[in-house]
C-alpha cells in the first residue's frame, strides 16, 4: 500500500512538472476526437507567415519530449506536438495502428481533423517518429512543404550499433530476454539512458525509480508496439519510401548514436541528393534532449532557407 502511494506521488510530481513546463512555454493541451478515436496534442501559436510545424516523437515517448527544443523556437510559430497512436493521451486500439503504415494513417486522420493540411506544413520526426514522418511525406506529398528527420528508424544501416547487437541477442532468444528500450527496474532505466544518450548524467536512484514507475503500467503496450515496428512491413519502411519523398528534406543525427547508426544519413543522402545533412558532435540518439538549442536552430535555418511562406517552397521534381 505504501509503495503504491509512493508511486502515485511520483507520477503526480512528474505530471505536474510537465504541466508547469508546458504552461511556461505557452503550450496548451487539446484533444481531437475522430469517430471514437481520440488524439491528445499540445500546441502553440496560430498558422502564419512560416509553415506550421508538426512534431512526431519516438517509441515509448510522448508529446512533452519536444519541450526542451520548443523552448528555443520562435514563439510566433504554429507548433503542434501530438501523442503518437497509443501513447500517453492518444487512444490505444489494436496492433494494426502501431505498424508504421498504421501510424501514418492515424496521423493523417489527426492532420485532417485539426485542418493542419489547409496549407503545406513542416513535418519533424525523431527515431520511430522519423520513420513515420518519412513514410507520411511519401504518402501525402501535397501536404508537406518540408521535412526534418532526426535519427530516424526504418533504414538498413551500413554500420551496426550497440542496440543492433541487443536486437540480435533478442531474436536468438525468441524475445525472451528483456528489451533494452523497455526498462522495468531502475538499473534497466539507467542502462537505457546510457544507450540513448552520449552525455552522461548522474541520476539519483529515486529519480530513476520514478521514471520506471511512470512507464511500468505501459510496458506491455510498449512491447506490442516494439514487435510491430520490427515486423517486415515496418522495419525498413522509411528506406522503402525514400524515393517517393518530393519535399525538401533535412537529416539531423548524433554522431555517437548507439541506437540507429549515423551511417543511415549516408543512405538518405544517396537516395535523395540535395538533402541537407547536419551531424552533431558528442551527441547520441536523444538529439532533442542532448542538443535542444542546436537542433531548434538547425531546423529554423532549414525552413528559412527554403522560402518565406508555406506556399512558396519548391518541391523536388
From TrEMBL:
<dbReference type="GO" id="GO:0031966">
    <property type="term" value="C:mitochondrial membrane"/>
</dbReference>
<dbReference type="GO" id="GO:0047372">
    <property type="term" value="F:monoacylglycerol lipase activity"/>
</dbReference>
<dbReference type="InterPro" id="IPR050266">
    <property type="entry name" value="AB_hydrolase_sf"/>
</dbReference>
<keyword id="KW-1133">Transmembrane helix</keyword>
<keyword id="KW-0812">Transmembrane</keyword>
<keyword id="KW-0496">Mitochondrion</keyword>
<dbReference type="InterPro" id="IPR000073">
    <property type="entry name" value="AB_hydrolase_1"/>
</dbReference>
<dbReference type="GO" id="GO:0031902">
    <property type="term" value="C:late endosome membrane"/>
</dbReference>
<dbReference type="GO" id="GO:0005765">
    <property type="term" value="C:lysosomal membrane"/>
</dbReference>
<keyword id="KW-0378">Hydrolase</keyword>
<feature type="domain" description="AB hydrolase-1">
    <location>
        <begin position="53"/>
        <end position="297"/>
    </location>
</feature>
<comment type="function">
    <text>Lipase that preferentially hydrolysis medium-chain saturated monoacylglycerols including 2-arachidonoylglycerol. Through 2-arachidonoylglycerol degradation may regulate endocannabinoid signaling pathways. Also has a lysophosphatidyl lipase activity with a preference for lysophosphatidylglycerol among other lysophospholipids. Also able to degrade bis(monoacylglycero)phosphate (BMP) and constitutes the major enzyme for BMP catabolism.</text>
</comment>
<dbReference type="InterPro" id="IPR029058">
    <property type="entry name" value="AB_hydrolase_fold"/>
</dbReference>
<dbReference type="Pfam" id="PF12697">
    <property type="entry name" value="Abhydrolase_6"/>
</dbReference>
<dbReference type="GO" id="GO:0046464">
    <property type="term" value="P:acylglycerol catabolic process"/>
</dbReference>
<protein>
    <recommendedName>
        <fullName>acylglycerol lipase</fullName>
        <ecNumber>3.1.1.23</ecNumber>
    </recommendedName>
</protein>
<dbReference type="GO" id="GO:0032281">
    <property type="term" value="C:AMPA glutamate receptor complex"/>
</dbReference>
<keyword id="KW-0735">Signal-anchor</keyword>
<keyword id="KW-0458">Lysosome</keyword>
<comment type="similarity">
    <text>Belongs to the AB hydrolase superfamily.</text>
</comment>
<keyword id="KW-0967">Endosome</keyword>
<keyword id="KW-0472">Membrane</keyword>
<keyword id="KW-0443">Lipid metabolism</keyword>
